[in-house]
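Morning!

As promised:
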Amino acid sequence: MKGRPIAFLATAALAVSALLFGIFRKEIAEVLINGALL
Amino acid sequence: MNFLKRRIFQGLGTVLPNAWLPGFLSASLYQGPMKSVCTPLLNCYACPSALLSCPIGTLQHFAAGGNVSWYAVGTLSVVGASVGRMTCGTLCPFGALQDILYKFRGWKASLPHWTRYLRYAVLAGLVFVIPYLTHENWFSKLCPVGTLMGGLPWVAMSADIRSLALSLFWVKIAILLFFVTTSTMVKRPFCRAICPLGAIFSLFNKSSFLQLAWDPDTCTRCGKCQMICPVDIRPDRNPTDPDCLRCLDCTRCPSLKLTTVFHRQPFGDPAFPVPVTGNAPGAPAN
């Protein structure tokens, strides 16, 4: 399907943006605390 | 993918995220920096040897606090956009257990088609809505992977936790036994009907970088691909099926192969078939 490469590029861009936004919000520290202090 | 190779990958997917063996010796959780990484597998982070965090547990923890974990969403989306559901098929420890259990001889059944939509309801309800409303991680409370990898080792190791094991623990045991039993009769019942992580990854199967390609010119529609498929689908009917785990067992058939989303003719141009034997037409004789 011709649209699939575009769909992949859009999905990948959104995925990386969400990941970077989460890192920017310093969520890693909360994930670490949640995982370590269950 | 070679069957033995997949078993080796599944073994690594079980051992490597749970490589903190001192956790079992000292009856304590790993609290180092690797716990900040969400594993793209359903791997319980309450397991004494767990090195990485569970992404579903992380999503619930943020939902219970009225937030969205963009870090977990982003991590899962990057993996999903790259390989689709491949981690379910090649790395997931609970998927490997279900694959092994289905090898037992006995009565076999197929799962009704509608059950594939249950996992989306589990994802929306037990991972987002109910934790948001009750401020409790309800999927983790009931998760059979958590019971197997977290609950049972802790109850076996610690008398204090044993004394705290209430009726909910026996409900968890019943859920685990239900899936262990049904896995001997049905191919991967938990992955297909319940797993919220599989529900997230299955959204990416149509647009992921890695794709399964099917060649209609060479396919004889014999249906052997469905017989060897661990989730009982026909990859020749829909190579981007949301249920497909990208385990690549079906690529033993020459009509199916792994390709990328940018590859338009993975089996070559049908207008110019490659000659199987002899010289190409028009080529000078040897």
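Residues 4-36 of chain A form one domain.

Hope this helps with the figure draft.
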